[in-house]
Design goal:
Blueprint lengths: L2 E9 L5 E9 L6 E5 L11 H11 L4 E4 L16 H19 L4 E6 L1 H12 L7 E4 L5 H7 L4 E2 L2 E2 L1 H10 L1 E5 L2 E4 H6 L16 E6 L8 H9 L5 E5 L17 H19 L19 E5 L14
Parallel strand pairs: 3-4, 3-5, 5-6, 6-11, 11-12, 12-13
Antiparallel strand pairs: 1-2, 2-4, 7-8, 9-10
Helix pairs in contact: 1-8, 2-3
């Protein structure tokens, strides 16, 4: 099937412009998908989303992947962004892909940092998300950004870091990520794991068993709070991003094998006629009980020649 990818640009509610890529099959089938990348990278997710968009396109599914605000080619500053602004950007991204494709129904894929955003959005806007996919999702931003930092003690920021926040307007989370005061306060209250039972969309979680950035225990806890029919796929041996540990650029062939497994699971979930629903947000199909599946590390998806080299 012929697939075209074109750059696009759309306006956020607060006036910033966000940069993205539309991947459009010649004959679209089914709902369009918005792909949300993780913190500190770009819409290509180090190549994972490039390959996922291509696989979706071959299945007839149009997609939009875009740089989160303050990332890649999108406008905005790291210290000014908030969880709420990202949630608003999901709203306009879904509207943009509907406008550009003419497809009314939309699905959502979020990874890592954006997995929590995608889950929260699906819970609060059920009519906009037909199906949901969460890839090694960070479902508790407070735990990651506050509780795991030694300079936060009993929810209070220590004086040394408080002085840095006063002087610079942000704290460093990583070499590529900074958090401003607004976001640091917001994570106490916007917590995706608290609204998982509100999600109506059939939901797939894919997580590597050796993930140390977002341990898989969080997804084990999440699947217990989701509805019957939702599924957790565990990729044995894979670290964060379904990668070999120490392969942040996703270059190792084993990383590509694991990512190919994840990609096929996502495509199957988004295109399978077994899980179906309507745009009212109500499930209209018969669904099986929730599932946890562990995949062996040597499993190979033969339909992925596009990743080689």
């Amino acid at each position: 099937m012929r697939i075209e990818s074109t750059d696009t640009r759309f306006r956020a509610l607060d006036g910033l412009y966000l940069a993205g890529t539309l991947t459009l099959p010649a004959q679209p089938r089914g709902p369009a998908v918005v792909l949300l990348h993780g913190n500190g990278v770009t819409r290509e997710e180090c190549g994972l989303f490039t390959r996922l968009a291509a696989a979706l396109g071959r299945a007839g599914v149009p997609s939009l992947r875009f740089d989160l605000r303050a990332h890649g080619e999108s406008e905005g500053s790291q210290q000014d962004r908030t969880l709420s602004s990202h949630l608003n950007d999901i709203r306009v991204a879904l509207a943009h892909v509907r406008e550009m494709t003419g497809v009314e129904a939309t699905n959502l894929v979020g990874t890592s940092f954006s997995g929590g955003l995608a889950a929260y959005y699906a819970a609060k806007q059920p009519t906009e998300v037909g199906r949901l996919v969460l890839l090694n999702p960070q479902l508790d931003h407070k735990h990651r950004f506050i509780d795991q930092k030694p300079w936060w003690v009993n929810d209070f920021l220590d004086e040394e870091q408080a002085q840095q926040l006063r002087e610079r307007g942000f704290l460093d989370h990583s070499p590529t990520v900074q958090h401003g005061r607004a976001l640091l306060n917001e994570v106490f209250w916007i917590r995706a794991f608290t609204v998982l039972d509100e999600i109506l969309a059939p939901t797939l979680i894919v997580h590597g068993t050796e993930d140390t950035f977002v341990p898989i225990d969080s997804s084990h806890a999440a699947i217990k709070r989701l509805k019957d029919g939702d599924a957790l796929v565990q990729i044995e041996g894979a670290a964060h991003g379904f990668a070999v540990r120490g392969d942040p650029d996703y270059l190792d062939p084993q990383t590509h094998r694991w990512q190919a497994i994840a990609i096929q699971k996502v495509v199957d979930w988004l295109t399978s006629p077994v899980h179906w629903e309507n745009m009212s947000g109500q499930r209209t199909g018969t669904r099986t009980s929730k599932t946890a599946v562990e995949l062996p590390s040597n499993l190979w998806w033969m339909g992925c020649p596009w990743w080689v080299g």
